[in-house]
Amino acid sequence: MATKSFSPNEVQRIIHTLHRPAVFLNMTDDWPGRDWTLEHLAICLGEKSVYFRIGKRDEGHGPLFETQCSYVEATLAEFLCWTKGKSDSSVGPFSSYPLSEYWAYADYKYIVLLFQEKATMFKDVVWSDFGYSGRDGRESTLWIGTNGANTPCHLDTYGYNLVFQIQGRKRWHLFPPDDADCLYPTRIPYEESSVFSRVSIIKPDLCQFPAFRRARAHVATLQPGQVLFVPRHWWHYVESVDPVTVSVNSWMDMEIDDEARVGEALTKIVVSALKTTASLDNKDNWLNPTEEGISSHDENIKCLNLAVKALMDKRSTQAEDSSEFAGRSGSAALKRDAAGRLKTKATDPFPPFPLPFGPHLIPVTCDGDCCQKQTASSLKETLLSKDNAHFSPPNRTEPQPTDTHQQGEAASISEELKENDRRNGEKYGSISTNDVLDCLLHPDVISLVTQLMIDRQRELDPK
Fold first, then answer.
1. For the JmjC domain, which residue ranges apply (predicted)?
2. How many percent of the chain have pLDDT more than 70?
3. Which of 29, 187, 238, 272 has the fewest CB atoms within 10 Å around its CB?
């Protein structure tokens, strides 16, 4: 058996102490899942087809959401032929999409459904080595893509992520939860477990999204055999950088706290109410393909009531525990774990310890220089783009041009922007349903409404 960098208990201590992304090395060398190359999987699945998401390689300045993609159903054998540059009948439905112009992604494929006739393959992914006893590939998803395949920048509303890279490399752009305002969150397209960013991370439009310049990108290129830890509520944009990539994702600790559950229920009510109302600007495909369908208003209200009741019950229990503890301990400070339970040093299963960063655990650091170069380049490109000239540049102080040519060029750009602003000024006053939703569903607004709702319930039932 291969020697592991860390024992399962050590990995658990590391994960419960980490507050930023990190990469584990030398933990999967003996996993049978290391053999899950595209060629191997094509043989295993045979004639079984899967859905692929198709996107244009030149996607402009906006993120390409799942609702805007094309989809084809094909076998992995056909996909394999397509990745090798073939264009005959062996590529099946991919014949309509030249490899030089399009990328393809089989994403979110639940392994328990994909290999239900080959259940022995579940054990090829050994999450028990990371301290999750009895957990294997059954609770994971498979991701297979070409160069350029990507997942729009988003955060998962609950759980944290472990990513096992098998074939090819993927580049991860990760942003801390505090950077939410820099990433312009949106709930359209709607997915219950995700909040998307309106910014294209690779080609950001800095005139439309100026705060993105302050976003702190943590960049890591995941190599085969490595495992990435993505902490709870970290934003991430993922892109494949090799001709073929294969990886396995598993969401851990999926429990969502009661206050967040109330927020999710509120969000679902607001989105469903506004987006199912017939109007001229409600023609967009707003429901993410990962969602099964639209719940009725009565169903959504029922979920909200259950979430509010659970939250109030928990707060009532916590208040009783605090009162009892204070009676026994005087003015002693109360400490609680992430679930709100009282804890002491004796009951804390993972006390703090120095993180063993080194050759086997690599922290994903903030790539400040890369971010500055990227945003500077994107700003110049945006300012010179006629397609985006109707956006006003943000107020900023910049060095003055030092020669006549630069002064003339700057003046020309400025005049062009002003003229386009004048011609397109009416666009600033055009507020859409999606604009209203972005404001109503801002995390701060949802948090405030949640508290107001709890206060109202407490007044109605003060016991």
1. 104-267
2. 78
3. 29
